[in-house]
Amino acid sequence: NFMLTQPHSVSESPGKTITISCTRSSGSIASTYVHWYRLRPDSAPTTVIYDDNQRASEVPDRFSGSVDSSSNSASLTISGLRTEDEADYYCQSYDTNNHVVFGGGTKLTVL
Amino acid sequence: QITLKESGPTLVNPTQTLTLVCNFSGFSLSSTGVAVSWIRQPPGKALEWLGLIYWDDDKRYNPSLQSRLTLTMAASGKQVVLTMTNMGPLDTGTYYCAHRRPAVTNQFFDYWGHGTLVTVSS
Questions:
Q1: N or C end of chain B: smaller count of CB under 10 Å?
Q2: Which of B47, B60, B105 is facing A102, going by the closest CB pair?
């Protein structure tokens, strides 16, 4: 099986842009879709990006997703950071046996 | 509207078996392509996928936990039960059930329950 590696934490000021990476350890990142979820305390997880680059409903266009085969990584980019973007973000994919894999999560702090 | 809700004990003794129930509405597990998954999060740690049950009763389990896990669906198609044996302190965490968007292979969870916190302690 493969692993998805994310930075443990990212911090930036309001109005700035950040990118969270999700690097696949083996196999091509492009071979299966990557999805991104947001976890806030005391709330159910919600989808931010699905199918690599599709924004979930009600997610503003400040959020975007992409996949880069050269680095074997997926990325979540958030522009125009707001304090309400503070949360833990997880990438997720799956293998050829339909086993699900989550990244280690990234804590976003908006200073 | 799809909703899911987890229920079960909040405290489990070490070595005991945990049984959690996921009650859902807005879809039926008897419909082709539908699946329900369980995911957990230990305190301060990452999400961990536990397993998934399909509409046709096919199942997938996290290989590292497979020997301890069983997923079953109720005849009503509106409930999924997770059973985990030999619980230990490291199994403490919030347990979520989630609806997998119907697809041939893509595993994407579009709706989640709020989760239920399970503590393993004597």
A1: N
A2: B47
